[in-house]
Amino acid sequence: MVARFAVLATCFVYVCPPRLDACIFCLSMPQTTAADILIHSEVVVFAREDPDKPFSYQAVEVLKGTLDSTAIDLLVNSSIRRRLKVDKAMVVVLARDKNDQSWRSVGIADEFYQQVVRRILAVAHVWTGPSGAEKRSKFFLEFFGHENRALSELAYLELGRAPYRTIKRFGQFVPREDLMPFLKRKEYIQWRSLAILLLSQSTDAQDRMSIEEHFTDCCEYSLTTDLAAWASAFIELNGASAIERIEREYFAKTDRSDKEVCEIVIALSLHRQYGNPQLRDQIVSSFEVAIRNYPEVVKLIARDHPKKR
Description:
Layout: H1 2-15, H2 34-40, E1 43-49, E2 57-64, H3 78-86, E3 91-96, E4 103-109, H4 111-123, H5 132-141, H6 149-160, H7 164-171, H8 176-184, H9 192-199, H10 205-221, H11 227-251, H12 258-274, H13 280-293, H14 298-301
Antiparallel strand pairs: 1-2, 1-3, 3-4
Helix pairs in contact: 1-12, 5-6, 7-9, 8-9, 9-11, 10-11, 11-12, 11-13, 12-13
């Protein structure tokens, strides 16, 4: 019982993020993006290798702040040197932290990426206030699936930090082919939950079938990888009938693992808080079944259970 509660207590931290409107399982994705670094840095420059000091950087354009005479204490590695030599228009985006004054690379940028960096710095001031998060997500949506991989990844990470309701709305505008790399490439396996949520907004019959099949596999083989995302997508497609099946497959049984129960509660919590309001009472009823068969789960879902007055 102690070991089981320890696992569920860990999940409780996971399901109660500091940003209450965020996608609660996209938090496994990096929450600091290149855009954050640009916005919060004291100085931002485009740089190339100093022709007089091999392996050292020299600023060729200052985009933000004031550059003093202090040398940029970063080295140009061999890979970047080769790319800069091949393409004279290529630069490296460098940013200096306003607290410890340290420099960091924000990536190598072709001419198009350079224009995006300029635009970010020019419009970031409007990404505050009640509608700021949505404006920010909308800005990056146009770069989803861009041929520049760094831009495509940035757009993906930016959408992953958006509230679930924004993810649902924007998911209708993300082409299916732009999602496939994030669903299939091994290097993106930790980021896949967002792609699954976006896939649930597709009207393509093949995508709906894929979600059904993945969720069925999770049920039959006790799979837990991305279970919360597949369950959430399954609910998105099938509503009340999906919750009935989830309750029957997971909460009504007594042999499910701690991890499975945790993942399912996360999915239901997402829909309880930010999904279709008509499903909320049914989700609460399912939580009651979960508590009967997994009593230690009560603290995991206490935040989501309506208070009795």
